[in-house]
């Protein structure tokens, strides 16, 4: 299952704490600033980019804007006629843009691609934002009476885990605490200056109010304005890039493995496909196996860290429950052992994840890839995982409808 090598030359991320509308910025401004910063960081000339791909979920609803591939041509004259396209798969939109760009390069169509993920989400009231995100489920057929659809959906997942394995919410609270702690030292994290009290992660209706069902405020990922860009290249083009900068090809991270799998749209349909004696979502388990196999790896223990989709702490719990480290329902043991802490045996969401760093929906998959690049090049600052050689991402959209994963390493 080997695949042609695709290399990541670098990129940039916006500050997820910024409220673009409050700062007088538009969706285009976020796009242009981030793309320009990425070009400066990688010392690439805009004329070197041969194709553009954009990940975005609901630009039409939040910003009244579609046709985002056209933004490239507004950033620099050299990009006026750049071929570009936009990709949507709910919260996995950024990963779909990356996979499409990788396919372009592997097909020999181009040698260097710019992949931008972007979303503006803080320019509307909370109830409107929640309604804008509802189409990631089957609109009109799932959770139709919910005031906040996605908290309601993942509260149902908590109920399922509790009935199946006796889930203790203290273990979910530990995930949130870990991710917020990691975000505190991330200069791009939305929550880096937030303050928490001793009861902020407790069943406390004042410090940690209920959102829906058994989901409370600090169980949730944070909606965010933000963008991220990475530049990916074929091996031939990466060699040229390395030579021009006095680097070795081995100094540039490559995408060693990738995975992409979809499940039926309805959450109820997914649950019908579960193995009563095994994992809840077989397709999530299959994605781990698929991605590891493409990288020539046998176990998630072969990577040095993960960036996973914690739109809620139960989502991170579910993903890790399917990764093969322990039998289903036994993940709490590893949480108690702090296995997933930044200095633990297998750090997870050293960046702060969606809970701590923030979740601009269309940007998340690209941001995860950028964090993989930073980790394996030793450029993650205070969020650095010691001696990281390989990092795995796991990005999902909807109720695990679209799932995508990368292994990035040197």
Description of the structure:
The mean pLDDT is 96. The protein has 410 residues and is an alpha/beta fold. The strands form two sheets. A nine-stranded mixed β-sheet has the order 3-2-4-7-1-8-11-10-9. Strands 5-6 form a two-stranded antiparallel ribbon. The protein is built from 14 helices and eleven strands.
Low-confidence sequence ranges: none
N-to-C span: 19 Å
Number of strands: 11
Beta-strand percent range: 15-25%
Q: How are strands sequenced across the largest beta sheet?
A: 3-2-4-7-1-8-11-10-9
- Overall structural class, as computed from helix and strand content, comes to alpha/beta
Strand count, sense and barrel status of the largest sheet are:
9 strands, mixed
Q: What general outline do the C-alpha atoms trace?
A: globular
Elements, N to C (H/E): EHEHHEHEHHHEEEHEHHEHHHHEE
Mean pLDDT: 96
Measured as a percent range, the helix fraction is 25-40%
Which structural traits does this protein have?
single chain; 14 helices; two-stranded antiparallel sheet; 410 residues; alpha/beta; 11 strands
């Amino acid at each position: 299952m080997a695949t042609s090598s695709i290399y990541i030359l670098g990129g940039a991320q916006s500050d997820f704490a910024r409220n673009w509308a409050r700062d007088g910025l538009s969706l285009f401004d976020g796009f242009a600033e981030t793309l320009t910063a990425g070009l400066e960081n990688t010392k690439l000339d805009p004329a070197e980019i041969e194709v553009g791909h954009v990940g975005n979920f609901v630009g039409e609803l939040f910003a009244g804007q579609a046709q985002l591939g056209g933004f490239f041509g507004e950033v620099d004259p050299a990009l006026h006629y750049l071929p570009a396209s936009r990709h949507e798969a709910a919260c996995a939109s950024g990963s779909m843009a990356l996979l499409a760009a990788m396919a372009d390069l592997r097909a020999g169509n181009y040698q260097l691609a710019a992949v931008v993920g972007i979303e503006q989400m803080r320019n509307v009231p909370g109830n409107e934002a929640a309604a804008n995100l509802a189409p990631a489920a089957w609109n009109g057929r799932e959770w139709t009476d919910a005031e906040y659809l996605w908290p309601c959906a993942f509260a149902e997942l908590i109920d399922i885990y509790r009935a199946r394995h006796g889930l203790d919410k203290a273990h979910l609270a530990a995930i949130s605490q870990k991710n917020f702690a990691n975000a505190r030292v991330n200069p791009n994290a939305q929550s880096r200056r937030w303050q928490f009290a001793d009861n902020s992660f407790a069943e406390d209706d004042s410090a940690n109010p209920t959102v829906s069902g058994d989901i409370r405020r600090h169980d949730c990922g944070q909606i965010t304005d933000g963008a991220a860009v990475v530049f990916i290249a074929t091996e031939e083009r990466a060699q040229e890039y390395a030579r021009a900068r006095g680097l070795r090809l081995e100094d540039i991270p490559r995408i060693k493995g990738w995975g992409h799998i979809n499940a039926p749209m309805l959450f109820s349909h997914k649950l019908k496909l579960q193995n009563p004696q095994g994992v809840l979502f077989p397709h999530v388990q299959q994605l781990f196996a698929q991605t590891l196999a493409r990288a020539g790896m046998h176990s998630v223990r072969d990577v040095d860290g993960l960036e996973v989709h914690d739109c809620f702490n139960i989502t991170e719990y579910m993903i890790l429950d399917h990764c093969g480290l322990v039998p289903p329902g036994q993940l709490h043991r590893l949480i108690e052992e702090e296995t997933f802490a930044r200095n633990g045996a297998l750090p997870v969401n050293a960046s702060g994840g969606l809970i701590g760093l923030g979740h601009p929906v269309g940007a998340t998959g690209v941001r995860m890839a950028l964090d993989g690049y930073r980790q394996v090049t030793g450029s993650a600052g205070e969020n650095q995982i010691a001696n990281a050689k390989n990092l795995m991402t796991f990005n999902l959209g909807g109720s695990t409808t679209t799932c995508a994963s990368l292994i990035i390493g040197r």
